[in-house]
Design a protein that fits this description.
single chain; about 240 residues; alpha+beta; 2 domains; two-stranded antiparallel sheet
Length: about 240
């Protein structure tokens, strides 16, 4: 089953957060340079690159993009906790946000199938689209991360009275009952047997919780060890 690990628990939270903020600013500067040079190399080489070489550059760009997203998550998490990240709620079609994220991450799913169950018509809600898009992406990324080869990830959207419920289910190892509450805490991460060798900062689910609750919603997980997990969140309409 998935095992929760609290990273750096012996360090004072304030010191750790200050160091993280300084490091992330430096990391973003380096990433801008790396991404810029890779993009320039790709443009100048043009058709001279063979498919293997082109693949190397694309993988490097995806890796740099993933690190940039990680840096943004860390910065935004700190701002949300301090109340300095203003949400910009606007009327939007939540089904469009879900489809957009599924299409973007679907190309990274490899042998894993993503099945969607949503209303055909638009479902309007008032939210910050950037924040909610990231919440959906975090939950879907986690599901893909822990799903076995040839597995299926299920994404659903339902209207429940004056609320919208979005859920992402996987067939992974599941979450132990004693870890379901702590899993949304900052710097907590889940250990399992991932499909790919990726790192986990323990920031994604913490951001999801803060962002959803800032919208007046709720978030949770339903899981049985060895039988997968369903991460869900509710938003007011």
């Amino acid at each position: 089953m998935r095992r929760l690990v609290q990273q750096g628990g012996d360090e004072p939270d304030a010191l750790r957060d200050d160091l993280a903020q300084m490091l992330v600013h430096d990391m973003r500067s380096f990433l801008m340079g790396v991404t810029g040079y890779l993009t320039l190399l790709q443009a100048r080489a043009g058709d001279k690159l063979d498919p293997v070489e082109q693949g190397y550059i694309e993988r490097a760009l995806r890796g740099a993009g993933g690190l940039a997203e990680m840096a943004d998550a860390l910065l935004d998490l700190g701002r949300l906790e301090a109340g300095f990240l203003p949400l910009r709620p606007v009327p939007c079609d939540i089904t469009h946000l879900v489809r957009e994220v599924v299409e973007r991450l679907g190309s990274l799913a490899d042998s894993i199938r993503i099945a969607c169950r949503m209303p055909a018509e638009a479902v309007m809600t008032t939210c910050d689209p950037d924040a909610i898009r990231r919440v959906i992406a975090n939950l879907l990324s986690n599901a893909l991360h822990f799903s076995p080869e040839g597995g299926e990830v299920r994404v659903s959207l339902e209207v429940e009275g004056d609320r919208v419920r979005i859920a992402v289910s996987d067939d992974g190892p599941g979450v132990a009952p004693e870890h379901r509450r702590a899993i949304f805490e900052k710097y907590a991460r889940i250990e399992g047997t991932p499909r790919r060798h990726r790192t986990s900062t323990g920031l994604g689910l913490a951001f999801c919780k803060l962002a959803v609750e800032a919208h007046g919603g709720a978030i949770g997980v339903e899981s049985e060890p060895g039988r997968g997990s369903t991460f869900w969140f509710l938003l007011p309409r």
